[in-house]
Design a protein that fits this description.
Number of helices: 13
Number of strands: 0
Structural class: mainly alpha
Mean pLDDT: 59
Distance between the termini: 48 Å
Order of helices and strands: HHHHHHHHHHHHH
Length: about 280
DNA sequence: AAAAGTGCCAACCGCCGAGTT
DNA sequence: CAACTCGGCGGTTGGCACTTT
């Protein structure tokens, strides 16, 4: 299927934006709001492609853009999130208020990537070992630690599941609900769903609560302990399943990052969650 | 002082997925 | 269901500023 160009190539200005163009764009968006990027340039009296207008607004003119150098905290957050999410700049940017995906991408490519290469190891390919490492734990903020733990567990589980699926296919065995996919099944199950619902509600109400995380941890312990084969929704492995999974983990990631440190008692400080951690360890090792 | 090299970042390009017709 | 539009995304690049030779 062919693609039409996003805009008429002729009569459209390119290159750096002038202050006059910026002013026209800002005034128009202030008055009419953003959206309908295709028709916006014409309505605003700009000889620009709609995409160009959108980019200019998002990356430069938006009022909530944070200017200035990246702080150390932002930097370490970028490194950690990049380790988990890869080059998903938009997803990374969503965790750094006021920073755009373009800015983060540029910063990574000009500063952090170089630094990682220089130090002789890749920041982007962190070892997928499950569980926290002491050296890391000290330097990371608590909220980010939890996210990393979850993501590591998820990635590891997906990896193991796909390996097991391969093995089971080779052996003409249709049984795939072995212990390694407990985490994934758990996430897809009503337990995981309820956790996501609770945390979403939490995010709406802005009332910090540790109950949701504790509740999920408790339910998780039960489920993992029994490794209930009746758990529904084990779609990970198929493409669509993976995408759903990524979306789900993204929202959870955001919510977890948004949680106050004290409210996230997932893996530490709780005896039960240690058990949960231990259960997973036992299963995966 | 000037040419060459390097770094940085705004902006462009092309692809993709979702939604619409 | 195919064709198409649109918004969004990540990779790449052009050009300016700064540094080095």
């Amino acid at each position: 299927m062919g693609r039409s160009p996003c805009c008429d190539k002729y009569g459209v200005r390119k290159g750096a934006w002038t202050p006059e163009e910026d002013q026209l764009l800002v005034q128009y968006i202030k008055k009419h709001g953003c959206g309908s990027w295709r028709t916006l340039p014409k309505n605003a009296g700009l000889l620009r492609c709609g995409k160009s207008c959108r980019l200019r607004w998002i990356n430069y003119l938006r009022p909530d853009i944070k200017r200035g150098p990246f702080t150390g905290e932002e930097e370490s957050k970028i490194i950690q999130l990049h380790g988990m999410l890869g080059n998903r700049w938009a997803a990374i940017a969503s965790h750094l208020s006021g920073r755009t995906d373009n800015e983060i991408k540029n910063y990574w490519n000009t500063h952090l990537k170089k630094r990682s290469l220089h130090s002789g190891h890749s920041l982007e390919a962190q070892e997928p070992s499950f569980g926290p490492r002491q050296s890391d734990m000290k330097s990371e903020s608590s909220s980010v630690r939890h996210v990393i733990q979850w993501e590591k567990a998820r990635v590891e589980a997906e990896k193991r599941l796909s390996m097991e699926l391969e093995t089971s296919c080779l052996n003409h065995c249709s049984k795939t609900n072995t212990h390694s996919d407990c985490f994934l099944r758990l996430w897809h199950s009503e337990v995981g769903q309820s956790f996501r619902m609770i945390t979403e509600k939490k995010a709406e109400s802005e009332s910090p609560t540790s109950q949701s995380s504790i509740a999920f941890a408790n339910l998780a312990i039960e489920q993992v302990s029994s490794c209930n084969p009746k758990l529904e929704g084990g779609t990970a492995g198929s493409d669509s399943g993976s995408h759903e999974f990524l979306d789900a983990s993204d929202s959870a990631l955001k919510l977890l990052l948004d949680m106050h440190d004290d409210s996230v008692g997932f893996f530490e400080g709780l005896e039960q969650t240690e058990n949960f951690h231990g259960h997973l360890h036992d299963r995966y090792d």
